[in-house]
Structure formats: structure tokens, C-alpha cells
Amino acid sequence: MQVRSVKTASNVYKPPAKLYSVAEALAALKLNSKLKVTLRDTPANISGNLNALKNIQSQITLISFPSAADKLNLNGAQLKQYDKLLPKFPDNSLVLTDEFGALNTHLSLMRENNAKINKIILTPATDPNAKQTISPWDSQLWSKSVNGKFEIQTQITTVVGGTATTPSSTVTNNQNVTVQPTNNIAKFSTFEDTQALAANYLGLKALDDMGMLTGIEAFKGSAITTTIAQGKALSALFNKYSTEFYLNIRDTTSNISKNIDFIASSNKKLTGITQIGNIKPLEISREQNRNADLALSKMKNPYSIKYVA
Q1: Which of 5, 59, 116, 245 could lock 219 by a disulfide, CB 3.0 to 4.6 Å apart?
Q2: How far is CA 164 from CA 193, 204, 213, 241, in A?
Q3: Average pLDDT for residues 20-28, to the nearest whole number?
Q4: Are 172 and 178 spatial neighbours (Cβ–Cβ below 8 Å)?
């Protein structure tokens, strides 16, 4: 008999990776320093051995806890000290507890590990009632805080070279604009993109709903481009504050038709309306057309109307 071919099994069983406690991993690595380990242990054991884990961080693939309800509590200094370990933890598993300044100093690390952060607890600083100024880009990050008072500072018309922790200043129109640290705590003095507020309105709303948004600096510069849904959310939020803002609406014919009353009521804030996608006649009533006449005069592309009852 002639054998023409041999087929091998396509599914080869692979046993699951061994899960080590911290103590087991440290003991195993003494015997084999090149071993790769996956850890599962209690938050208390992980927290009590962070220095030891830092020394073997290159050998650790993942770190998990026995229960999804388990969380690891870190402060601002530990964020920096154990930054290479943070990506190894599961998402939604870290609780950060410290003064705003201590955490804000390591804001870049918080951004990188945003998905890992479950909750932020701000401990009292010199003035526990102080308003903390944050960037609109970080509103969703800080909305994970269970306490604190935040305000959003928005656009200025000049660009300052530097960061919140690296001093830099410039003079424009006889006004000195500075980005610098204050007492080693990052103080934000400028944000150069008001459009970020539109993209992050959910984070702003979360802060406001939790009673942690105390103010929004008045807009400066050009209008924000939004969908109608974003425009509604921004209007509801910013009308609570002494904030001037202007909208460019970009949305589908259908959404414009369905929300023509909102558009009419927002006429003073509108700088333009642009239909996108498959452009069709607006389906509105004659009364809606009369009420929205001034707003629709700001339409950027040709439009037609189909009257409905």
C-alpha cells in the first residue's frame, strides 16, 4: 500500500497558562530567571509586593485579581514609580487616591491608562473647596472622580510653547500668557482647541451631573462644529454658565428636519448649517418653516422643502 499523504490534527490542545500568586512567582523566578509568569493574587498581596514586582516586571505578562470586584489602590507617586506595571493590570481595576496636584502631575500616565482606572478619590489639599482647572480633553477622565470641584478653561487666541509642567510664556496684544507649574502642581492656563469641548461633551456632562463642574470660561474664537445631538447637549450644559458659544451644525437632512424647532430656537447661536450625506428636501410644516426662516437662511448648501402636516 502506498501512502500518499498524512494529515496532522489541526487543533492541538494547549493547556492553560499557569497562574502564579506573587509568592509563587518570586520563588519560581529564583529557579528560572527567564520564566514568563501570569499573576493572580489579592489586591492586598499585590499592593504589599509592588517593589518586588517592579524588579521582575519584564517577566510578568499579566496581573489579575480573584474577583472582578477587586481593585488596586494607588496614589500619585505610585503611578510614576510603577508605571511599567500599570498596562499589565486588567481594565477598570485601579482606584487612584491622592490630592489633585499629586495625580495631575502624572496626567500623561493617567491618560495612557484611562481604561484601567475605575475611580478617582481626591483627598483634601490646602483648600479642599478649591476649583481644579482641567482641560476639556480630560473631562471624561476626571469624571471618574467621586468628589472634587472642576472648571474647564478653553481657547485663547495665541499659542504658547510649553506644557503645564514646563514653564513657557509669550506676550500677545500686551497680554502675558503663561503656562507654568505653581508649587510643583501643574496649573493649566491655556487650551488651544475649543472644538475638543464638542467631542468631550459627555465627559463635561458627567462632571456637571455629579456636581463637580463649577464653571466654564467664555469661548473665544470661532464657532464649534457639531451634530444636532451634540449641539443640544452643549446648549443644555453651557446655558448654565456665563458662556458665549456659537455653533456650526453639520448633520443629515433627516436630523435637521426632525430638529427644526431646536434649530429655530438656536438662531442667535448659529453661524451655519450644512447638510451632509444623501441630501433630500427638508420635511417640515409651513409654520416650522416660518419660525426657522432666519436660521435656515444660514444654510451653507442649496436646500428645498417638502411641506408636511
Answers
A1: 245
A2: 16, 21, 21, 25
A3: 96
A4: no
